[in-house]
Structure formats: C-alpha cells, structure tokens
Amino acid sequence: MKAVVQRVKSAVLNVDGNVVSAIDKGLCVYLGVEKGDVSTSADYLVKKIAAMRIFEDDNGKMNLSVIDIGGEVLFISQFTLCADTSGGNRPSFIGAEVPEKAKAMYDYAAVKMNELVSTKKGVFGADMQIIQHNDGPITIELQKI
C-alpha cells in the first residue's frame, strides 16, 4: 500500500464538472492499493498520516499534525501509485489490486481515517479533477508492505 500526502491550504475534487468533496486546511492523501494489501497496512498508514507532524507551530517549526490543527483530509484513490516503470515507456499496473478488492480496502482506510480526523472522499474509479492549493509545498510518500 502506498500513499502520497500533500499539505494543502484547500482542495476541491470534481467529477463530471460537479463538486464532490472540498476541504480547507489539511491534507490531500492519494492511496494506491497493491495486490495482497491487508487491513493492518491501512491501519498503519492511516495512523501515521494522521499523526505526522508537518504543520507549523507558533515558532514556525513543523511540529503539529492535521489532528492538532483541526484540519481535514481529502482521501483519493489512485491506482497509478502502483505503477511499475522498470520496463519500457508505458507503466504497468499489474501490481495494483483488482478494483473490487482495492475499493474495499480504500473504503476501509477512509473510514479509519475519518475516525481520527474529518475526512472527505473522492469517487473510486472515477475520472476526477482535483484543484489543490498546495502549502509549502510539503509532499511525503509512505509505503507499508
């Protein structure tokens, strides 16, 4: 399971020209579910992301989590994080979990995240347009095997 976490001032997620989800200050989390991923991987990543101290305190030091600042999370499925680019110029997604299992794991992780911090979701499998006002920028990759 892989996640890319970006600190944002705000983010809006659209599908077919309609706003589906929007957050103010917080995190955009892109989640890629790989074959064989289990719920304990999701549990680990969710706890790590929610507790990660990547927001500034009063002294300008990255010392606060999204929970500490009362922020929000925009949680987005992204199978392309599972790309294998080692052969040729076209990425292979053979390592990505099949859609039914990936959706179940994505939904599970989103529920777990929402237990810790206010979480909005994307639409699994949809063609989404995301407008992010990145803050920093701060972008962090996480992986749990």
Indicate the topology.
Blueprint: E1 2-15, E2 18-23, E3 26-32, H1 39-51, E4 55-56, E5 62-64, E6 72-77, H2 99-116, E7 119-121, E8 128-143
Question: Which CATH class applies here?
Answer: Alpha Beta
How many structural domains in the coordinates? 1
Relative helix content: 10-25%
Beta strand count? 8
What is the general shape?
Answer: globular
What does this structure look like?
Strand 6, helix 2 and strand 7 form a beta-alpha-beta unit. 21% of the residues lie in helices and 39% in strands. It is of the alpha/beta class and 145 residues long. It has one domain: D-tyrosyl-trna(Tyr) Deacylase, Chain: A (3-Layer(bba) Sandwich). The model has no long low-confidence stretch (mean pLDDT 97). It is globular, with a radius of gyration of 15 Å. The strands form 2 sheets. Strands 1, 2, 3, 6, 7 and 8 form a 6-stranded mixed sheet that branches.
Question: What distinguishing features does this structure have?
Answer:
globular, 145 residues, single chain, D-tyrosyl-trna(Tyr) Deacylase, Chain: A, 39% strand, 2 helices, alpha/beta, 8 strands, six-stranded mixed sheet, two-stranded antiparallel sheet
